[in-house]
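Key result, reporting period 2: structure in, sequence out.
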C-alpha cells in the first residue's frame, strides 16, 4: 500500500494541475495542460523507467544478504539518473519546445503550453534524484517514507498551485504557468527530503558502507541500464501511445482534447495504483529469486495478479456508474463533461487489461526478463493500438471514441501476451530444483 500511494503521487501532481487549471483558468488552458502532460509523460516515464533498473537488483542482493553490493549499486544508479535527468531536460527544452508548434494544435493552446512545459522540463532533474533514493529504499522493503514524502509534496503542490494560478496574497494570477512553478518547487523539496532520510536513517547504515560516488564502474552501470533501459522503453511505448492519441484528438478540436485530458487523468490514477502493485511484485519476485525460493516467487506473483484484478474491477464499476459525475472534478464545461463521460465508459472496459499488463511487466522485471516484454509492449501499442485507433477515429470518423477503442485493444493484446510470458518463465523456474 505505501508503494501504491507513492506511485500515485506522480500522477496526482498532474491531476492536481489539471483540476486547478480547469476550475481557475478555463477550457483553453486545460487543453494546454492536456497537450503538455501528453508530451511530458513520455519524457517522465523514460526517466522513471531507467530508475526502476535499480529496484530488482537491490532486492536480489538483499535476498542474498550481499549488503555491501547494495551501496555500490546505489552509487552507480545515482550518477546515471542525474545524467539522464540532465539529458531529458535538454531534450525537452531544446527539442519538444520546437516541435510543439508543428503538431497541428490550436495556436491559443500552444501559447499557454510552452511556459508550463518549460518548468516541467527542469523538474525532471530533482525528480530523478528522488526516484534514485526511493527505488533504493523500496528495493530493501522500506516503503513508508517515500509515501509520506509524496503525500506532503502533493499537498504543497496543490496549495502553491492554487495561490499562483488564481493569484492570491498580492501575487498576480499566473494561469497555467503557476502550476508549472508549483510542480518544480514540489519536486525539489521531495528530492531533498528523500536524500536526507536515506543518509540519516539507521535502517540503511549496513547498506551504505560502500556508497561512494567515486565507486562508479562500467559493470554495475551496465547491469542497471540493461534492466532500466528496456523498462523505460516499455513505459514509453504505452505512454507515447496515449500521447499520440492526445495529439490525434487535438486535431479534432480543443473541447475533445480537454475531455480526453479529464478521462485520461482519471484512468492514469488507477493505472498508477496498479503500477504500485506491480512494483511490489517486482520487489517480492526479485527477493525470492535471490533466495532461490521459486515456489513462493510464483505464488506471490499470482497473488499480485489476483489483487490487481479485484482492484481494477472495482474502479471499472466506479468509472461506468459515475461517468457523468467524475468529470465535474475538473471542469463545469458541459461539452467537455459529455464527451469525457463517454470516454470513462470505455476506460471502465480497459481497466482490467491495464492492471494485469502492468503487473505482468512488474513480475517479469523482478526476474530480470525485460527484453521480450519490451517487444510485446511495442507490438501491442504501436503495431496494433495506435493504427487501429487512427483507422476507427480518423479514417472511419468515429472521433475520440474510435481512438480510445484502438487503445483498449492494444491494452488487451499486451495483457494477454505478458500473461503467457509470465506463465512460461515461472513454470520453468518451479520445475528446476533450487
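The corresponding designed sequence is given below.
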Amino acid at each position: 500500500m505505501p508503494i501504491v500511494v507513492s506511485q500515485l503521487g506522480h500522477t496526482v501532481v498532474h491531476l492536481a494541475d489539471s483540476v486547478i487549471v480547469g476550475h481557475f483558468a478555463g477550457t483553453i488552458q486545460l487543453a494546454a495542460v492536456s497537450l503538455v502532460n501528453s508530451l511530458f509523460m513520455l519524457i517522465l516515464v523514460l526517466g522513471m523507467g531507467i530508475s526502476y533498473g535499480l529496484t530488482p537488483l537491490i532486492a536480489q542482493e538483499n535476498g542474498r544478504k550481499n549488503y555491501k553490493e547494495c551501496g555500490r549499486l546505489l552509487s552507480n544508479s545515482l550518477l546515471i539518473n542525474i545524467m539522464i535527468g540532465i539529458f531529458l531536460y535538454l531534450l525537452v527544452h531544446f527539442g519538444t519546445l520546437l516541435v510543439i508548434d508543428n503538431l497541428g494544435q490550436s495556436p491559443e493552446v500552444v501559447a499557454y503550453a510552452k511556459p508550463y512545459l518549460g518548468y516541467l522540463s527542469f523538474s525532471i532533474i530533482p525528480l530523478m534524484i528522488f526516484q534514485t533514493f526511493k527505488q533504493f529504499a523500496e528495493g530493501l522493503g522500506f516503503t513508508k517514507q517515500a509515501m509520506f514524502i509524496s503525500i506532503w509534496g502533493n499537498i504543497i503542490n496543490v496549495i502553491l498551485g492554487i495561490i499562483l494560478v488564481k493569484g492570491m496574497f498580492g501575487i498576480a494570477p499566473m494561469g497555467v504557468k503557476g502550476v508549472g512553478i508549483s510542480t518544480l518547487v514540489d519536486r525539489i523539496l521531495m528530492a531533498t527530503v528523500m536524500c536526507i532520510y536515506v543518509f540519516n536513517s539507521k535502517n540503511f547504515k549496513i547498506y551504505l558502507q560502500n556508497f561512494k560516488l567515486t565507486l562508479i564502474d562500467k559493470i554495475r552501470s551496465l547491469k542497471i541500464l540493461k534492466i532500466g533501459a528496456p523498462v523505460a522503453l516499455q513505459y514509453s511505448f504505452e505512454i507515447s501511445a496515449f500521447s499520440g492519441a492526445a495529439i490525434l484528438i487535438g486535431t479534432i478540436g480543443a473541447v475533445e482534447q480537454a475531455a480526453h485530458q479529464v478521462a485520461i487523468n482519471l484512468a492514469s490514477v488507477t493505472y498508477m495504483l496498479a503500477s504500485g502493485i506491480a512494483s511490489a511484485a517486482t520487489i517480492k519476485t526479485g527477493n525470492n529469486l535471490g533466495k532461490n525460493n521459486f515456489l513462493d516467487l510464483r505464488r506471490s506473483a499470482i497473488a499480485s495478479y489476483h489483487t490487481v484484478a479485484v482492484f481494477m474491477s472495482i474502479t471499472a464499476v466506479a468509472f461506468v456508474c459515475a461517468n457523468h459525475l467524475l468529470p465535474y472534478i475538473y471542469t463545469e464545461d458541459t461539452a467537455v463533461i459529455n464527451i469525457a463521460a463517454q470516454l470513462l465508459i470505455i476506460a471502465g472496459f480497459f481497466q482490467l487489461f491495464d492492471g494485469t499488463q502492468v503487473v505482468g511487466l512488474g513480475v517479469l522485471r523482478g526476474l530480470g526478463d525485460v527484453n521480450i516484454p519490451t517487444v510485446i509492449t511495442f507490438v501491442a501499442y504501436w503495431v496494433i493500438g495506435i493504427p487501429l485507433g487512427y483507422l476507427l477515429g480518423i479514417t472511419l470518423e468515429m472521433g475520440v471514441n474510435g481512438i480510445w477503442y484502438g487503445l483498449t485493444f492494444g491494452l488487451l493484446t499486451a495483457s494477454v501476451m505478458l500473461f503467457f510470458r509470465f506463465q512460461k518463465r515461472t513454470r520453468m523456474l518451479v520445475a528446476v530444483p533450487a
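The first helix runs from residue 2 to 24. The mean pLDDT is 81. This case is discussed further under Risks and Mitigation.
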